[in-house]
Amino acid sequence: MVVKDANAVAESLRVLAEKGDASAQYRLGLLYASGQGVKQNPRQALAWYRESADQGFAPAQCVLGNKYALGQGVKQNFKTAFSWYLKAAEQGHARAQYHLGTMYEEGHGTEKDAMDAEYWYFQAAEQGDAEAALKLARLNEDNQYMAATWYLKAAEQGIPEAQFMLGNRYATGQGLRKDPAKAFDSYLKAANQGDLRAQWKVALAYQDGLGVDADEGEALEWLAKAAKAGFAPAQASLGLRYANGLGVAQSYAKAIFLWEKAAKKGDAESQHNLGYLFNNGLGVTKDVKQAEGWYRQAAEQGVAEAQCILGLMCARGEVAEIDYIEAHKWFSISAMAGNKASEANLKYAETLMTPDQIAEAKRRAAEWMETFRNR
């Protein structure tokens, strides 16, 4: 006999649960948690989960682990959560194995242990747990072939981060044969699930014809979607199109609007571009002080051209007094990044400086480089 009525299902489960059926106890707990067929009652749900878990029913043990880990209906207790997850995991429950892996990785309820974390993630992933596969991919980033294998497994189950990372692997040939078409396909799957990084990659693919036929309309649509959602690189790219009138009506105002949003999020390209506009009075009143501020932010993030221009501003005294030491510092840093103009500027600056000034400039440059490398 098939029972269709939710109330009847609940009553049937109650009869079995009260007779000690662990599966029925667990399922009755789910009904009390959701309010299907019974009045919603989280405390009653917890009680039935416990009855089931005490009989060794792994799904109930995993749920109790979740409750204690999150502090839902009980006082948060990672050690108790760990204990329940372990009981379920040892019975082969994939989600419990995944959660146990996270507890070992993060040191919740137990000592941190990377090997145990990877072991339990592996157990879960082998049973098809997509999040565990993603964890394994991250843990094995130093092994590009293994990382790609696990990203592939997680991506096949629809995890957008894995699809995005798999796209990167196909785009660069890391751990997989380079394949722009497969890269685009992976990016598109992630983009359709709302991954902003993937939406930007899809836009660039349509823009440059990478793995797909070039399509300006699609490129703009995906750029606008990611930019509207606040993704800084997309805002930077769209701003560049407005600044140069590429596929859109030229508008410095819109470029500035987008670049300021991205720059405030730390996008170095946008910071540099704003410096250029303010320094040259394009779309705004020329403001050397504003320009210097934006160039400095970009320079501090390693943009060689911004470093070169900042050096020139220091050498010319455009914002403050002439400072050849700071100029030399920025020319030196920029030249080390391969900026040819800075190489020439560096040589000329040294003709205007004393040996002590040059030594101090080199010390500052070395100090900056050390700090930059350790960020």
TrEMBL record:
Q: Which SUPFAM superfamilies match?
A: HCP-like
Matching Pfam families, A to Z?
Answer: Sel1
| InterPro entries, per database record | Sel1-like, Sel1_AlgK, TPR-like_helical_dom_sf
* SMART domains per the UniProt record, alphabetical: SEL1
Protein name in UniProt: Sel1 repeat-containing protein
